[in-house]
């Protein structure tokens, strides 16, 4: 069977990066197709007709959508390499729980802080810091969320690192001060090629975020 | 090892029902603890400190939260019976996708219709019908979402059936007219003891919903 793998993605997407890291971890060769979210391609609309969102993994013509589901799919299909998932069902449930938590919390709270002023801005900022402190608590004293090895939850969370400079600059706080253990974990992750080569530069993400806010007339 | 299983739940919860069905399918004996959501127990707050929500499964003192994650946990721990999950990774990704879709769409859209009037009500109603038509499309001509057998996505979706009378009455539409294939599927599911014994009566759910709206002063 031909093994044609295509990823529809946008370079700055926190969620697209999960798929890129997972593919790199499994050494899967794929075609990367950059999407312009203001002018989505017919292929994206066809392959994710329900949400019209990136990332979409297209494997031999079939589409898989939603980043956490894509990462699990990659893990299950390319199973010749070590699984991303912990072997214990309770640990697996915990990893899924925290990925789900980050899905529900990080992006929406960042948007609240980024796009508002005054009281709502302050609320968003405190919430965003509190979310990362909570995630730091879940790391505890482990090397990686996966324990001694980089796994599903590490893949789920490390993309946020590329947005840290934007979070810090708009929020006027320092991740290093707020979450030193989490920052040490980001450094360990960034030593992996699968991560460092999949994440864009933090300043480039910040410049992108500034340009979007200007384009929205909110600056 | 002792196998102590406790479910913190509320009888009318669409999400708690998923856990009940999964436990019944695997013939797991457990203690059911009804929660009063207006006065949550210290055990619930301790066992789900992040979301303070039901359902929570407590297995030998450890808590598992979020209904879709609970169902996967039950599937993986009590693996002496057939898995809820399709054997094919693509089918598994699809099952996860539609459970996630229903998580994101059904309850919020129902609330939009239930708690609003005028244009927003009409919008909510049309959206709710459209969601179930979309879910019916995903069933296609299969007996169950799991194919010939009742599986993960069936467990994820069938609890909504117990709310259909409330949806229909507040929305002034008929599921039988809008989604006849989906209705035929609900009948097949309800022939299973694991489902029929886990779902409350539709009229009881409706009365509950009426009483909540009154208590909110919105009637």
UniProtKB/TrEMBL annotation, chains A, B:
Keywords: Cytoplasm, Transferase. One of its GO terms (biological process) is glutathione metabolic process. The keyword Cytoplasm applies. It comes from the Eukaryota. It is found in: Cytoplasm, Cytosol. Gene3D superfamilies: 1.20.1050.10, Glutaredoxin. Residues 88-208 form the GST C-terminal domain. One of its GO terms (molecular function) is glutathione transferase activity. Residues 3-82 form the GST N-terminal domain. CDD domains: GST_C_Tau, GST_N_Tau. Its main location: cytoplasm. Transmembrane segments: none annotated. Belongs to the GST superfamily. Is involved in the conjugation of reduced glutathione to a wide number of exogenous and endogenous hydrophobic electrophiles. This is Glutathione S-transferase. It comes from Medicago truncatula. The gene is 25487038.
